[in-house]
Amino acid sequence: MSKNQLVLNARAPTAYAQATPISLTLSYVTRRNPSLVRHNAQGDDNLKSTERSAAATTAASGLFLPRSFQDTPEQQAVNAFFSNYILIPRHPFSKRGYRECLLPLYQHTRHDSLLSLATVAMALAIQGGSPRNQHCRVLSRAYFGKALIKTGRAIRDPIESLKDETLMAVLLLSFYERVLATSQSKQISGVHDTGAVALVKHRGKENGKSEVSARLVLAVQTQVVDHCIQTSAPFSKTSADLDSLRPSTLENAASRLTSLSAQVSDLLAFANPTLRNHNELPSHDQLTAILDHATKVEAQLSAWPESVPHDWWWKSSNTFNTMPSHERKLYVYNRRVDIYPDIWVASVWNSYRGTMLLIQYTILQTLGFLNPPPLSRPAARIVTAINTVQDLVDDMCGSVPFNLGTKTFGGPADRAEVRYPDDGVTRPSSDYRKSAAGLGGWFLLEPLKTAAFAISLREGQKEWILRQIERIQRIYIIKNSIDDPMSSMPSPRCPGGRG
Predict the structure, then answer these.
(1) Nearest 10 degrees: CA dihedral of 432, 435, 437, 441?
(2) 90-107 pLDDT, tens per residue?
(3) Taking Cα atoms as reference points, which of 161, 176, 26, 209 lies closest to residue 105?
(4) 0.70 exceeded by the pTM?
(5) What are the tens digits of pLDDT across the range 161-176?
(6) Are residues 452 and 469 in contact, defined by beta-carbon separation less than 8 angstroms?
(7) What single DSSP character describes residue 184?
(8) In terms of C-beta distances under 8 Å and separation of at least 24 residues, what long-range contacts does 286-292 make, across chains too?
(9) 3-class DSSP state for residue 23?
(10) Can you spell out the DSSP letters for 315-359?
């Protein structure tokens, strides 16, 4: 076997086993560096389910990955990108993106291909989140520009436009836009999301039958839903097309949440024009319609936790050594430390909580008009919504130690001195530490921003949340900017509101 090949264990997920041969080649990276070292990630041989066993190892056991080497920033960034983000094991039911499909497509591409350029741009953008590597952000823009030029050519080509590699590249460019926009506290344009949807429709159902193709469609749907929620845009205009192109066989807990969250974007699109109207108070009929819509969406989303696998539920941890102990309150709120199966499962839970908070905010804004204090006592529904908000925010705060540990600076790389909570039996694994260091803060940022503007929180909780947001911004070099998700929906009569 060539030194430039990756050996993939037979227990790897079907996304790898079906899409690629057993021997893989990391084009671009290994082509320039033949020295390889073994990636030591532990699988769980005791799991009965083949899928769970495969996911526990992902592409880990038996993989050979390029070691970190001093050559060019591009090579170092791509090496770190695959090692620290793409090939880390994750729970199978948390998959609703495209990362598990990247390597099988990437390893066949030329170093100057569209997918290769998009991958390098993405890798450099992430690498630039470290104080010592900020020059990588500048370099990433050059590769992004080259990728954009090739994207324009590819989507106009009758053959290239149908390839999975082209759609994957567009998804990476969309992800790149998100990373850069977040780091600069700018609004995401959504141009690449729109392009991805158009590309999926152009490809049609016939070009989406493979598992890789189907997962790419799911990834497009997930990114579009997220963008629609952030911008209060209706998702229903695109959902029918995407749902019909995505096989039901890929449904899991994460993808079900995506489908349910699409309804929240439609709710916000329906409610915001009325609640944001600064010139005219909403009518009783309008408010009743919004409340009825919100109640239906809330009921459907509230049922989602009942559908998750039993091992998705978090557990309390009593073994989070912050050293010195007087600093514990910097990392832990109200003595709450929860641990999850992995970072991705925790991120799906926090996505659920953030989405539910938006529903509760809409309900409270609406009820604030229907029950204006001090003319009437708050309705029971208001009290229920406030209590729901408190529970959701408490759960979110409880996940912060698992996502961030004691990390306070240093970028996305793991550092030995950073401590993470564990179950009291096994120490935090290398894969968990890498994923928490690289992704934990990114996954937490938007949910925490949403939680920071919850009304009637426990005294001091909002301040603690804001400190965690500042910590994430410091770790990943993100500009300090927090936009209240309801700032454009002022309601001075909303109980506990800002007015």
Answers:
(1) -120
(2) 887 787 777 888 988 998
(3) 26
(4) yes
(5) 999 999 999 999 999 9
(6) yes
(7) T
(8) 287/366, 287/369, 287/370, 288/370, 290/362, 290/366, 291/363, 291/366, 291/367, 291/370
(9) strand
(10) EE-SB---SSGGGHHHH-BTTB-EE-S-HHHHHHHHHHHHHHHHH
